Amino acid sequence: MLGSPALGVSAIVVCFNEEDRIEDCLKSLAWCDEIVVVDSFSTDRTPEIGRRLAHIFVQRPWPGYREQKAYAHSLATKDWVLLVDSDERVTAELQQEISQQLAQDNGTYAGYAIPRLVRYLGRWWWRGGWYPDYDVRLFRRERATWGGVDPHEKIIVDGQVGRLKEPLHHYTYRSIDDHVQRINRFTSISSAELHKSGGRWRLSDALLRPAVRFFRSYILKRGFMEGFAGFYVALTAAVYVFLKYAKLWELELKDKRDGERRR
């Protein structure tokens, strides 16, 4: 059983206005020794649900994905930390695999990458480029730090990373409207981070990278086998890339205008 002190697991979740999904997420983590929830002052029932189901519930202003998840990590007290987003669920099969893996762990691994399986548009996305999407989600608390840039933060572990087989279920988008809104929000964050790090806009990026992304999703990853849904997902993946570079171009235009005003 995972509840034994020798195999202590802290689950960490960050959230904001997730009342329709946070309960299922936290209930799927009930087997963990500790559940830590960091909420960004939600205005719906998320805090009520979080306080009821989490062992540690904290509210904190939103500083960005990387910083908020790193803060949740800092609140965890068990040997192992499991990062789960509020739109994800740990299945019974994944729980069992984690239990077995940690029971036989001899210190070889500092973390484990877990595949994610997306549920969207009435189907599981085994094709189209979203699966397996391996990501380090289970790691030793004292052997992990945070890197990457928003909104694509990542866990960096000091040691080897193993791989689990059972997927984390990811209920990524509520609807097409939610999908489009998130594309807009995430591309704004991505372009700003790219601009801040010195990235420069190039026409070739804006033209070629979206085409490559579409080809990868629709052809190489067999999205065409999902019918129109596969075409839609491939197209929106290309739009994401295009918008990121278009917004980078816009930021450079703004810099140019600001520079001219200061002359």
Arithmetic mean pLDDT: 94
Structural class: alpha/beta
Q: Supply Rg.
A: 20 Å
Find the CATH topology of the largest domain: Spore Coat Polysaccharide Biosynthesis Protein SpsA, Chain A
CATH level-two architecture of the largest domain: Alpha-Beta Complex
CATH top level of the largest domain is Alpha Beta
Work out the strand percent.
Answer: 15-25%
Pattern of helices and strands: EHEHEHEEHEEEEEEEEHHH
**Outline, from the CA principal axes?**
globular
**Any idea what the CATH superfamily of the largest domain is called?**
Spore Coat Polysaccharide Biosynthesis Protein SpsA, Chain A
Number-wise, the strands total 13
What gap, in angstroms, lies between the N and C termini?
68 Å
Q: Specify the helix fraction band.
A: 40-55%
Largest sheet: 7 strands, mixed
Low-confidence stretches: 1-5
Count of DSSP-assigned helices: 7
Q: How is the largest sheet built, in terms of strand order?
A: 3-2-1-4-9-6-12
**What is the domain total for the residues?**
2
Features:
four-stranded mixed beta sheet; disordered N terminus; alpha/beta; globular; 263 residues; seven-stranded mixed beta sheet; Spore Coat Polysaccharide Biosynthesis Protein SpsA, Chain A
